[in-house]
Design brief:
Elements: H1 2-54, E1 56-58, E2 65-67, E3 91-92, H2 104-107, E4 121-122, H3 128-154, H4 156-175
Antiparallel strand pairs: 1-2, 3-4
Helix pairs in contact: 1-3, 1-4
The chain binds iron/sulfur cluster and zinc ion (ZN).
Iron/sulfur cluster (SF4) binds near residues 99, 100, 122 and 125.
Length: about 180
């Protein structure tokens, strides 16, 4: 009888450890996975932007291919960057349109540049559609992490079973 109680005790201890393991895993998903998905997505965006930065661009005036880091167009001397700095892009409106019409800062009324709302050139222009898409991708990345987390919560029994199987497998492997 005593042996039986000891066995039950050991089993309960094992189950307890497994529950702790699940809790730790959930914490890991919370603390590591979600920010990581977001940071990985941001990193890939940065890499993409860097790759685009070293790629060629097209001069808006003469339509010749130019290095996207070029400050002025080597063909027509058109100014491509603001203040002669390759890190400051100079956005230009196409045709008769104004940049402000499609700019985030005009839409949320946070811009106080004097050229607003008739800017044809601007260094701070941010396209509304592009920023919406970026926001959606960020939301998708964080909701994916939340889905994994809630799945683990809903299927704790299955996770526990898998952990037990894994532990058994490890024990079996270590004894052979
Ligand atoms: S940041 Fe530039 S493009 Fe955007 S609203 Fe202001 S002036 Fe217009
Ligand atoms: Zn040019």
């Amino acid at each position: 009888m005593n042996e039986c109680l000891e066995l039950v005790d050991e089993c309960l201890g094992l189950v307890n450890e497994c529950l702790n393991f699940i809790n730790e895993s959930l914490k890991l998903v919370d603390e590591y996975f979600v920010p990581n998905v977001v940071s990985e997505w941001l990193e890939s965006r940065c890499l993409l932007m860097n790759a685009q930065a070293v790629d060629t661009a097209t001069c808006p005036r003469c339509h010749q291919p130019v290095n996207s880091q070029a400050v002025t167009c080597p063909h027509c001397r058109n100014e491509l960057k603001a203040y002669g700095h390759p890190g400051i892009p100079l956005h230009r409106a196409a045709g008769k349109e104004y940049l402000c019409d499609t700019c985030t800062y005009h839409a949320d009324d946070t811009c106080n540049f004097p050229q607003r709302p008739f800017a044809k050139e601007c260094i701070l222009y941010q396209n509304i559609e592009e920023s919406k898409q970026e926001l959606q991708q960020q939301r998708y990345a964080s909701s994916f992490g939340a889905t994994v987390r809630s799945w683990m919560r809903r299927n704790q029994a299955l996770v526990l079973l898998l952990v037990l199987l894994f532990v058994c497998l490890m024990i079996a492997l270590s004894t052979t």
